[in-house]
Amino acid sequence: MVDIFDEVSEDLRAEQTRQLLRRYGGLVVVAVVLVLVGAGGWEAWRAYQARQDAAAATEYLAAMTLADAVPPEADAAARAPAIAAFQNVAASAPAGYRTLARLRLAALQEAAGKPEDAAATWNAVAGDGDADPLLRDLANLLWAQQGIDKGDPALVEARLKPLTAADNPWHQLAQMYMALLDVRTGKTDAARATLRVLESDLSAPEGLRGRAGGLLDRLGG
């Protein structure tokens, strides 16, 4: 009796399967095809991304070679080919290489005596939602560094303040720049307080702690 019930159950399941296939078989085939096409499309996209990354890496390394060949004392004209090369990478590369190219481009622009161009490039990185947050913060830090001695103090402080948070990887450099900005704007007490914190921060690089101590001495401790 048990065997009969098992056989009937199997027959019913088989019949249900046949009915489902007759009713929905076309959709099942379409679904399978879509899955296969989707998988193939994903693989094709990954292959395309790999080719894009490889091309960007080649262009970036070529631009680096041009930049590294320029001596520190070179004039703007000598830096022009490297600047153009990094501009091309920044214009066409995927997000990672685009960000790195912009940061190197800004450094070249500043060295070439084009601070406005450098500031615009750092701003482009800082405002790029696809860029790594660490590099976006670095762009803000470099933008602020350029404005320590001549930029609008309020704007520079607005860029630096979020970077001084203890959980920010750049907070120690940001603290140093904030102290320098305070010195410039006559906030000597605030500068001393920041420098004392930085000088006693054992997690800060030794050179940075030494510079904080030296500046603190010049401010009378």
Report what the structure shows.
The protein has 2 domains: 12-143, no CATH class; 147-221. The chain starts with a helix and ends with a helix. 26% of the residues are buried. The chain contains 9 helices and no strands. The chain has 221 residues and is mostly helical.
Whole-number tally of structural domains: 2
β-strand number:
0
Unreliable residue stretches: 1-13
Number of helices: 9
Question: Beta-strand percentage?
Answer: under 5%
Biggest sheet character? none
Measured between the Cα atoms of the first and last residue, the distance is 99 Å
Large-scale geometry: elongated
Structural class: mainly alpha
Q: Please tell me the overall pLDDT.
A: 82
Q: State Rg.
A: 30 Å
Specify the helix fraction band.
Answer: over 70%
Order of helices and strands: HHHHHHHHH
Describe the oligomeric state of these chains in a short phrase.
Answer: single chain
